[in-house]
Design goal:
The chain has 303 residues and is an alpha/beta fold. The chain has a single domain, classed as Rossmann fold (3-Layer(aba) Sandwich). It is built from 12 helices and 8 strands. Helix 2 links the parallel strand 3 and strand 4. Helix 3 runs parallel beside helix 9 and helix 7 packs across helix 8. It is globular. The chain starts with a strand and ends with a helix.
Length: 303
């Protein structure tokens, strides 16, 4: 469903709305799930949503701005990714089309629009960065924070191998659906879990459904610049007082495990859980371990 949040049209899936027969759904503790770079709300595994609901939570998913069915920002133009990277390395100021803090305000706007006073905030990859921004900006709204396969954005951390970055920054050979799906299959094979590979037919089917729902690469580029431009977050993580769980694959080829260690070190009392053989995706086997840590973390935190 489409809602108005932070002055934008944001696409949301809310299990309380989906299950009107459940009269208690709106009073359950809310869990807001924030997806990563260029990813839509449908990328959250159904198993994860179902198990969170079974554990007694109201689950809210959203398409971030500029992606999926949420409002796009094409009027801001396509950013120069190469120039943004050069400026980052030189320590020069980057002017993004919008910031991760703007995206955090979108998330808070979603809670406002749904009448949710406070929620558990769970983000994956870039979504973890946005979740961190939510916890910094509005601590009174955050029951708990969970950062999955994400980063503090601190300089000096180990970076992905250049072959991984080359695939990440590459583009499909054409705009045809088949070429786009081929591109993402190659990307997800490159960054996925080495010990838990997703069968290609399953991966291809899932990517095809996502591309048919929405394909908006310019939005991904603008989000990417917002990530690179967010250079102050690492120093601000010390202000987070919300109970925090940091989950990360030890075999992540895109965001090395060192990034998770840095996030956990910067947030007082944060618990770090590393998952062997997991890369930068959410296959079923690691997802079981994620939920085994996540659900007790959510249940232990009180508004």
């Amino acid at each position: 469903m489409k809602i108005r949040a932070n002055g934008l049209d944001i696409e949301v899936e809310d299990t309380a709305e989906i299950n009107p027969q459940d009269t208690d759904a709106f009073t359950r503790p809310a869990v807001l799930l924030i997806m990563g770079l260029g990813m839509q709300l449908v990328a959250w595994p159904a198993q994860m949503v179902d198990e969170l609901v079974d554990a007694g939570f109201r689950v809210i998913r959203m398409d971030n701005r500029d992606i999926g069915l949420s409002q796009h920002f094409d009027h801001l133009g396509k950013p120069n990714i190469l120039m943004a990277g050069i400026k980052y390395k030189l320590g020069l100021r980057i002017r993004p089309p919008y910031t991760l803090d703007d995206m955090a305000q979108d998330a808070l706007g979603v809670l406002d629009a749904l009448g949710v006073v406070s929620a558990h905030i769970v983000g994956v990859s870039m979504g973890g960065m946005v979740a961190q921004r939510v916890a910094i900006a509005a601590p009174q709204r955050v029951i708990s924070l969970t950062s999955i396969m994400s980063s503090s954005g601190a300089k000096g951390l180990k970076q992905a191998h250049r072959d991984v970055l080359r695939v990440l920054l590459s583009r499909p050979t054409s705009g045809a659906q088949e070429a786009v799906v081929d591109h993402y299959v190659k990307l997800y094979k490159t960054i996925g879990s080495p010990d838990f590979p997703t069968p290609e037919p399953e991966m291809r089917s899932r990517i095809t459904r996502a591309v048919q729902r929405s394909y908006h690469p310019a939005g991904t580029m603008r989000q990417m610049v917002a990530i690179v431009a967010d250079i102050t977050r690492a120093a601000q993580l010390a202000s987070i007082a919300s109970p925090t769980l940091v989950l990360h694959g030890k075999a992540d080829p895109l965001v090395p495990f060192e990034h998770a260690e840095d996030v956990a070190r910067r947030i007082r009392g944060a618990r770090l859980v590393g998952i062997e053989g997991m890369g930068h995706d959410l296959p079923p086997e690691p997802l079981v371990q994620i939920l085994d840590a996540l659900i007790p973390h959510l249940q232990a935190a009180k508004p």
